[in-house]
Amino acid sequence: SGTLTNNSASRFTGTITDINAALDGLTYTPDSGYEGGDRIRIITDDLGNSGSGGSLEDTDRVSINVIADLISHSISVSPSTVDEGDTGTITVTFTVSRSGVTGQDSSVEYSFGGTANVGQDYGNIGGTSGAATPNGLIDFAPDETSKTITLDIKKDETSESDETITVELSNASTGNPIYVTKVTGTNPASVTVTDDDIAALVV
Q1: What pLDDT score does 25 carry?
Q2: Which terminus of the chain has a lower count of CB atoms within 10 Å, N or C?
Q3: How far is CA 140 from CA 11, 45, 46, 172, 198, in A?
Q4: 3-state class (DSSP) for residue 18
Q5: Residue 151 has what pLDDT?
Q6: What are the two backbone dihedrals, phi and then psi, of residue 36, each rounded to the nearest 5 degrees?
Q7: Shortest CA distance to 176 belongs to which of 38, 33, 73, 6?
Q8: For the chain, give me the number of helices (H) and strands (E)?
Q9: What pLDDT is attached to residue 203?
Q10: Which of these, 197, 82, 181, 178, lies nearest to 138 by C-alpha position?
Q11: Are strands 3-5 and 9-13 parallel, antiparallel or unpaired?
């Protein structure tokens, strides 16, 4: 048996029985994240063990089309627009979802952005993702398909412009190199906080 990787060649020598035994169960492993065409070369040499005339050598070239198994990560938000209000808080939920090979573990980074300020305009970051800060990593165990990032928008009585809060995904990865990880869909997800306060009239 043996293993081949991208654009590689492998030589097998010995009796026909030895060569066939070595070829049995031969596997091909593409480079991590690779998708597309490839070609491998297999060289066999009987070292003169098959009849007369010295060593017999043969070279075979095999074309391979690599179709990667994909793990996709996407993000959405609900609600996408909220009225700020005057007192209390409003909870907004960002949902990070996986599709594809969800039986494999994976992770993806997240980061907050937008015109609203953490601490001043919103806080209490949490959710099933384990998020607690404006930047971090979300880990998915095998068979997990969604996790949430929650936050509380702080209401106030200050007249100001509408504000946005965004969460962006990046750098999806997995511990198994045969799978390709990607961030798909609308990214970042964004919620608009609509100000409903009236500016004080200055006379």
Answers
A1: 78
A2: C
A3: 40, 47, 49, 11, 44
A4: helix
A5: 96
A6: 140, -160
A7: 33
A8: 1, 15
A9: 52
A10: 181
A11: unpaired
Instruction: Give the tokens for residue 123.
Output: 């806080």
* 87 backbone dihedrals φ, ψ, rounded to 5°: -135, 155
Give the pLDDT of residue 73: 97
CA distances (Å), origin 186, targets 34, 97, 155 = 24, 12, 27
CA distance 116 to 194: 11
Label residue 143 exposed, middle or buried (CB < 10 Å: 0-12, 13-18, 19+): exposed
Walk along the chain (203 residues) and give the pLDDT tens digit of each residue. 444 545 567 888 888 888 888 888 778 777 766 778 888 888 888 888 877 778 888 888 888 887 778 899 999 999 999 987 667 889 999 999 999 999 999 999 999 999 999 999 999 999 999 999 999 999 999 999 999 999 999 876 666 688 999 999 999 999 887 788 999 999 999 999 987 655 444 45
Q: Could you tell me which residues come within 8 angstroms of residue 92 by beta carbon, excluding any fewer than 6 positions away?
A: 77, 78, 79, 82, 122, 150, 151, 152, 153, 165, 191
94 vs 114: CA distance, rounded Å: 14
Cβ atoms within 10 Å, residue 83:
13
CA 161, distance to chain mean position in Å, is 35
